[in-house]
Design goal:
By secondary structure, the chain is of the alpha/beta class. The protein contains eleven helices and eight strands. Helices cover 43% and strands 11% of the residues.
Length: 240
């Protein structure tokens, strides 16, 4: 893992330049979504009268696209019925209430916007992404939003490459914040620095335990020279 000073050296190639763009994964980074994802797939399994997901299947589904997960957990004879069951699920009523935004997410997004850092999403989700962003009032922060409907799912780096082209930025001037091996692999494939969120087992340039810690650590990469450093207040529970 690179130190913060090494990361600074990578990003600050010219005076006054630093992090120009940050790409976010959704599940396990922006949102605590494991419970909702497991309920979604187990609901389909219950409709088909199949047993609940095993721990290994849960781990796979949490990182995979919907298409990959369905191929992995649904036997071939059940797949047509599984897709029909998927379409009948009341996503706003049954799944969205199980989702929660990670503490500090809104604060860091507003801060990065004020510092003119470009923001994007690269996720293995597909059709549910924009509904999620609307539900949590996050739509206006991100452009572009790269999903598994737009690009091959991670670990393919094509989504990151597409974001770089849209932004007209070099790989070393942005970073990708993720929490899984497929995120790490996608970043490596695109030549983009990888930042790990709450997963110390990944090979990353930087590791973060939460968004309030992250704001403090990356301030030198983001805030302009001569600017008074921002003090990032956090809830009392975050200090433990």
């Amino acid at each position: 893992m690179k130190t913060l000073s090494a990361c600074l050296a990578d990003l600050q190639k010219e005076p006054g330049t630093g992090l120009r763009g940050l790409v976010f994964d959704i599940d396990g980074v922006m949102l605590d979504s494991r419970a909702s994802n497991m309920e979604f797939y187990n609901l389909i399994r219950r409709i088909l009268r199949l047993p609940p997901l095993s721990p290994a299947e849960e781990e796979y589904c949490h990182m995979a696209s919907v298409e990959e997960a369905m191929l992995h957990i649904i036997p071939p004879a059940y797949r047509e019925a599984a897709w029909e069951a998927c379409r009948k699920i009341d996503y706003p009523g049954q799944i969205l209430p199980l989702l929660s935004v990670e503490p500090g997410l809104t604060e860091i997004l507003r801060w990065l916007k004020r510092q003119q850092v470009k923001l994007a999403i690269f996720t293995n989700r597909s059709s549910t992404v924009h509904e999620l962003l609307r539900h949590f009032d996050l739509e206006d922060f991100f452009d572009p939003v790269a999903t598994a409907s737009d690009y091959p799912p991670k670990p393919s780096p094509e989504g990151l490459v597409g974001i770089l082209k849209t932004w007209d930025e070099k790989p070393g001037d942005i970073a990708f914040l993720g929490d899984s091996k497929v995120d790490e692999q996608a970043a490596r494939g695109a030549g983009v620095p990888f930042w790990s969120f709450r997963n110390q087992e990944l090979q990353a340039h930087l590791h973060f335990n939460g968004f309030f810690d992250m704001m403090e650590l990356i301030s030198p990469l983001v805030e302009k020279p001569g600017q008074e450093p921002m003090r990032h207040a956090r809830p009392a529970a975050e200090d433990t």
